[in-house]
Write a structure and sequence with these properties.
The structure holds 2 protein chains of 2 kinds.
Chain A: E1 2-6, H1 7-17, E2 32-38, E3 41-47, E4 51-58, E5 60-63, E6 65-70, H2 71-80, E7 85-90, E8 95-100, E9 103-110, E10 127-130, H3 131-141, E11 156-162, E12 165-171, E13 175-182, E14 190-195, H4 196-207, E15 214-220, E16 223-228, E17 231-236, E18 255-260, H5 261-274, E19 281-287, E20 290-297, E21 301-308, E22 316-321, H6 322-331, E23 336-341, E24 348-353, E25 361-366
Antiparallel strand pairs in A: 1-5, 1-7, 2-3, 2-6, 3-4, 4-17, 6-9, 7-8, 8-9, 10-15, 11-12, 11-14, 12-13, 13-25, 15-16, 16-17, 18-23, 19-20, 19-22, 20-21, 23-24, 24-25
Chain B: H1 3-7, E1 10-15, H2 18-26, E2 35-38, E3 47-50, H3 52-55, H4 65-71, E4 76-78, H5 82-99, E5 103-107, E6 110-114, H6 125-140, E7 144-149, H7 152-161, E8 167-169, H8 172-181, H9 192-200, H10 206-210, H11 214-221, H12 224-231, E9 248-259, H13 262-282, E10 287-296, E11 301-312, H14 315-326, E12 336-346, H15 349-353
Parallel strand pairs in B: 2-4, 7-8
Antiparallel strand pairs in B: 1-6, 1-7, 2-3, 5-6, 9-12, 10-11, 10-12
Helix pairs in contact in B: 5-6, 11-12, 13-14
Classes of the chains: A alpha+beta, B alpha+beta.
């Protein structure tokens, strides 16, 4: 095997693939990247058995072949070079030689036979979504995904298409994000749970693409495949039962408050400075025209803020986990938000006001913390 | 010795063979006989308590009942009646509180009392300790032993010296001499394993321990070395803590027969989780760390722990975590004798008061 590549081309792809490279040393081969040199390109594969990426990079292939090498080592080596072009060749043994100008490395390799086999996906029955739209959906739900390994079914987002209506839902049992959009009757029904790590990698890949472009989704066995430009991201799905999220969407939240998102974000961020593991409660007291935001931590101190709001009904107090409020406010871009409250013990419903007309219906639901006294 | 040490007066009160004595008190036919409180000799349970008559045969707490039976076949085996012991314990605590509010119960049958400033204005801790023992006997017909000393460490050792129905006083002036002759295994915090390592270093008595520099003890025994250095000098500044909060709450179950079936073990975990949840909820306690304890048929015991992001105390969450921990064991491939779940990393009361509510997903489990 022998080929030349442009250093930055390979580095860019490696950068994107590092996220799926297994960092724990469970199986040494999973720390490797698989390189296939053929038809004047390199086909690159990386996987941790859950998530994987297939990518490519133009190359001048002198002698085709395939091999796997330690991904992080390769990245580090390429970073130490300064010239644009790098030549790769297998020497007589099992070492891969890298030459860049006068600099040279020889690195250990492992055979591709030990590399996990990845099923082929033809994208023959693919569903197509717009890059920008889906990126926006992921940003609105990803932060609510549970990272608790004991809540397996909640370790991903539910992607559901039913009668042409799309829903993307995440929850950790305390808060929930729901995106809805009418797609049109031509869309096939879907009901899958996409793991959090996959959504993170998908988000990264989508960011490198034109928001107006489309990307494709297809399935092979219990795996989902995303084709974004020249790259393919694939992943196992979560084989679990997502709870019926409709049950947690509140009805009859009759008190509506309209607030400037950025102002509230700054107030809540100020509160988070005083919060600790044992003291997360931030108290929101709404009264006509004004709200008071208080966090008291017996060990650290307290913080009080007042903010003008659009609110007409009777005074109501409700307590939320400061982190949940902060993450919601941080991940949104709308100028104003609407909070719909029933009482101190029922779910608060958070919605966005006048966001660009994307046809996207977004609900964020946070369960309160019990107020003391 | 430090002045603050000499000022304190600590009493350690320890009931004599508590559970067994309650049984002998309530059942005339048990008096004067070896009594073992625990399971039946055929059962796989362990001894909760043994009367002094049974102890002369070598029967001890925590010994398997079958073994107690072999040591003392004529012993009468009775099931524990925890409700009764608890009621008696409360009666005894009322007597303590009559004299001081600084009471630190260690279990149902023993407690530390700081009587430096006692309510009865009694200048002598020794008189006070004898008053308390007499009062206990008058009200419960049970005997207690007491240790009187300037700190908790010495008081606890002292209460054991003239057991049963005795008192031992270690005044500050005699503390050092007392410690010098004390066998190392009697020191609080020195168990069998540490005792062996101390013997290997030629430490057999308090005086031997006192010859070591603090740095050397820390080198040999880690952090505990600093504690050994202090107690060799009779220095124990730990206060009597009236509201000792539990650090962990657990439930465990020894099965009537070893279980190898994974489904059955999971069912047992459900039951244990339900009981644990009941206890946690009763105390309004919630914890982040769930520990699964598992004993195989050869008595080898393992624990597996997982820490959650949230404080939990409901049976479902406890069972879910415990079952996922069970998968990291050899359960199903090896026979299991005992399972237990413990919750630690407990939230303080403030937090349980302002706790996070769950989204209402109904019966849907995650």
């Amino acid at each position: 095997m022998e080929f030349h590549i442009v250093r930055s081309d390979l580095l860019n792809e490696l950068q994107l693939m590092m996220g799926v490279i297994e960092k724990k040393n469970t199986m040494p081969i999973l720390a490797n990247i698989c390189i296939k040199a053929e038809n004047n390109q390199l086909v690159l594969q990386a996987t941790d058995l859950e998530v994987g990426i297939i990518s490519s990079c133009p190359a001048q292939v002198l002698e085709p072949g395939e091999i796997t090498v330690h991904a992080k080592n390769l990245q580090d080596m390429l970073n130490t070079f300064s010239d644009a072009q790098v030549s790769f060749s297998m020497n007589e043994g099992t070492m891969l030689d890298l030459v860049c100008g006068s600099a040279q490395f020889s690195i250990e390799t492992m055979s591709t036979q030990d590399f996990p086999s990845i099923p082929e996906c033809e994208f023959a029955t693919a569903i197509q979504f717009q890059v920008g739209f889906f990126k926006d959906c992921i940003a609105k739900v990803l932060f609510s995904v549970s990272t608790d390994p004991h809540k397996y079914a909640l370790n991903g987002s539910l992607l559901k298409v039913l009668s042409g209506e799309l829903s993307l839902v995440s929850t950790d049992g305390h808060r929930m994000s729901v995106v809805n959009k009418a797609l049109g009757p031509e869309f096939q029904d879907l009901d899958i749970i996409i793991p959090r790590k996959t959504l993170l990698e998908l988000q990264k890949s989508l960011k490198t693409s034109d928001p107006e472009e489309g990307f494709q989704i297809d399935f092979v066995e219990n795996r989902i495949f995303f084709k974004i430009g020249p790259r393919v991201l694939f992943s196992r799905l979560i084989d679990g039962k997502f709870p019926d999220y409709h049950k947690a969407i509140p009805v009859g939240n009759d008190k509506t408050i309209i607030i400037d998102r950025v102002k509230l974000f700054e107030i809540v961020r100020r509160k988070s400075v005083l919060s600790s593991d044992k003291s997360k409660l931030v108290r929101l007291s709404f009264s006509p025209g004004e709200m008071v935001v208080v966090l008291k931590n017996a060990e650290r101190g307290e913080s009080i803020d007042k903010l003008a709001i659009e609110y007409e009904a009777e005074a109501v107090d409700v307590g939320f986990n400061v982190d949940y409020l902060l993450e919601f406010l941080k991940n949104m871009s709308a100028e104003k938000i609407e909070i719909h409250i029933k009482d101190h013990a029922s779910q608060g419903l958070f919605q966005l006001v006048n966001e660009e007309d994307t046809g996207l219906d977004y609900k964020h639901i946070i369960m309160p913390m019990r107020l003391t006294g | 010795m430090d002045a603050s040490q000499t000022q304190r007066k600590i009493i350690h009160v320890d009931m004599d063979a508590f559970y067994a004595s309650v049984e002998q008190r309530d059942k005339a036919d048990l008096r004067g006989k070896p009594v073992v409180v625990g399971g039946s000799p055929q059962s796989r349970g362990v001894v909760c308590a043994a009367s002094y008559e049974a102890r002369t045969f070598g029967v001890r707490s925590a010994m398997p009942c079958a073994m107690a039976f072999r040591l003392c076949p004529e012993a009468v085996f009775v099931r524990p009646r925890f409700e009764v012991y608890k009621a008696v314990s409360q009666e005894i605590r009322r007597i303590f509180y009559f004299h001081t509010d600084l009471v630190e119960p260690l279990s149902l049958d023993e407690a530390f009392l700081d009587v430096t400033h006692n309510k009865s204005g009694n200048p002598s801790a020794t008189w006070l300790a004898n008053d308390i023992r007499a009062e206990i006997f008058k009200r419960t017909n049970l005997t207690a032993s007491a240790g009187v000393a300037p700190n908790k460490f010495l008081a606890k050792i002292a209460s054991d010296i003239n057991k049963p129905n005795g008192i031992c006083v270690i005044p500050p002036s005699r503390a050092e001499a007392f410690i010098a002759t004390l066998p190392i295994g009697k020191f609080f915090g020195i168990g069998k394993a540490t005792e062996k390592r101390m013997h290997a270093l030629d430490i057999f008595k308090g005086a031997d321990l006192k010859r070591f520099e603090e740095a050397d003890l820390i080198r040999h025994f880690g952090k505990a070395g600093a504690w050994y250095y202090r107690i060799a000098r009779g220095l124990d500044f730990r206060p009597v803590k009236p509201h000792r909060e539990a650090k962990s709450i657990g439930v465990e179950e020894t099965f009537a027969g070893d279980i190898s079936d994974l489904d059955r073990l999971q069912q047992e975990l459900d039951l244990i989780a339900q009981e644990l949840a009941r206890r946690l909820q009763k105390r309004n306690a919630r914890g982040k760390t769930v520990t699964l304890k598992l004993r195989y048929d050869d008595f080898s015991t393992i624990t597996r722990a997982a820490t959650q992001n949230q404080f939990i105390n409901d049976a479902d969450s406890l069972a879910t975590v415990a079952k996922s921990l069970l998968r990291n064991s050899e359960a199903g491939r090896r026979k299991v004798r005992l399972l237990g779940i413990t919750v630690s990393n407990l939230a303080n009361r403030d937090l349980s008061a302002q706790r996070q509510l769950q989204l209402p997903f109904g019966d849907d489990a995650f």
